[in-house]
Structures are given as C-alpha cells and as structure tokens.
Design goal:
Largest sheet: 13 strands, antiparallel
Low-confidence stretches: 4-18
Bound molecules: 2-acetamido-2-deoxy-beta-D-glucopyranose
Number of helices: 2
Keywords: Signal
Number of strands: 13
Radius of gyration: 17 Å
Pfam family, one: DUF7907
Protein name: DUF7907 domain-containing protein
Mean pLDDT: 91
Helix content: under 10%
Order of helices and strands: HEEEHEEEEEEEEEE
Shape: globular
Strand content: over 45%
Number of domains: 1
C-alpha cells in the first residue's frame, strides 16, 4: 500500500504554525503495529490523505517502510516535562507535512488529534497543522499510550468523588476498516471505551521504533 498526500493548500498549512512553550522532541520514529490476538497483523502506520493538509493514520501490513514511504511513516514526539505516567513523558505525536520544493518553511509540523463520532466509540487519529494535541506517551517498552485522567466507571449518585484526577495510561488501539475523512481506509482507531463499536476493529499494540 502507498500512503498518499495532497500537495494543495500548503500556504494555509504554513500559516497555522503556533508558538509553543519550550519542548523537547524525539524522533523520527516509525510506529510498528502488531495484533494483540491476530498475529498476522504486523506492519507500520503511515500518514494517509484525508483532506487538504489533513492525514489519517493508515495501517499497512509488511516490513519497515522504505523509499518514498519513509516520510509518510516518520513521526515525532514533543513533550514539556510537565506530566508523566509511571516515568513516561506525556506529550504529543506529530507528522511533518512536506511543502513543495523551495518552500520556506520546508515542512509544517502536524500534531495528532482524535476525531470523534456521535454514533461510535471509535475515534480516528488525524494529523493537521492546526490540530489540537492529543496527550500520548511511550512506556518503557516503547508502547504508545493515551493519557487519561478521569474514569467515570465507579461514579455513584450524589457522591462526588474526592479525587477524580487519576492519571493513567490507556492502550485502546485498534486497526479498523473505517471512514477517515471521506476515505474508507484500514486505519488506526482509538476506542474511547471497550469493546469498539465497529466490528472490523482488531486490537493492536503500537510500538515506537527509532529510525
Ligand atoms: C516540537 O518541539 C520542537 C523542538 O523544541 C519544536 O521546534 C517544534 O515546533 C515542536 N512542534 C510543535 C508542533 O509544536
Ligand atoms: C530537554 O533536553 C535537554 C537536553 O538534553 C535536557 O537538559 C532537559 O532536561 C530536557 N527537558 C525535559 C523537560 O526533559
């Protein structure tokens, strides 16, 4: 499978770069995707066209990306050091949108956020220059987690929890056949609760592999 990208609306993309507080960045790295139950799932994530300067996170079974696909599969992790879970920094993942040759800047960092649906619990990771930044991290085994701080599963009527803030790593990653923008892709999905509503979703681990 080839990851494709629209080359349009790059001026719009370039204008969306924002000022940030000091951050450290690691990368580039690949995101290795392996099935939790279905061991035939073994491949890599790559940015795939979902709209003007907007990409989803597609799945391609097979070996490490090479050649033209390396750019689409190269990600970065930014963190400030303000939050961690069990010693793992919490920050956000981004992908670099490459502008036309000769452009200044040459690339536009595109943070990952989730797009939610009101009729499913499966959200799509999306990359875009103006995106909000989904809080994620990589644990000691390099597995990507999503940072969560509130769990309403134990709430009781009229009994306000004293300390609802419980920072925790969640790993509800799947690959699913799903709409990413208006494209029907085999792509990474995030289940806000389990099990995922979409019956094509298969549970996966997503592991950081430094390039
Ligand atoms: C991530 O951190 C690097 C290094 O500090 C910085 O240059 C870059 O702008 C940051 N990326 C985003 C999307 O804020
Ligand atoms: C960022 O990197 C610098 C240089 O390696 C290091 O001194 C600093 O502690 C790092 N900051 C955070 C928040 O990890």
């Amino acid at each position: 499978m080839k990851f494709s990208l629209s080359a349009s609306l790059l001026a719009l993309a370039a204008s969306a770069v924002q000022a940030q507080q000091p951050q450290n960045q690691t990368g580039p790295f690949f995101l290795h995707i392996t099935g939790k139950e279905d061991k035939t799932i073994d491949g890599y994530a790559g940015a795939c066209h979902a709209g003007a300067a907007i990409e989803g996170l597609c799945f391609a079974n097979g070996p490490k990306p090479s050649g033209d696909n390396v750019n689409y599969a190269s990600f970065y992790f930014n963190y400030t050091g303000n939050q961690d879970v069990d010693g793992a920094e919490v920050g956000f993942v981004s992908w670099n949108l490459q502008l036309a040759p000769g452009s200044d800047p040459a690339v536009v960092p595109s943070p990952m956020s989730f797009t939610y649906s009101i009729t499913s619990n499966v959200a799509q990771p999306m990359f875009g220059p103006g995106n909000s930044q989904q809080s994620v991290g990589f644990d000691k085994d390099g597995k990507m987690f999503v940072f969560g701080s509130m769990d309403d599963a134990t709430f009781e009527p009229d009994n306000r929890p004293h300390n609802p803030y419980q920072p925790k790593a969640y790993y509800n990653w799947f690959v699913c056949w799903q709409y990413v923008g208006s494209y029907y892709y085999h792509a990474v999905g995030w289940a806000t609760t389990l099990p995922p509503h979409n019956p094509t979703c298969q549970a996966v681990d997503i592991t950081q592999v430094m390039i």
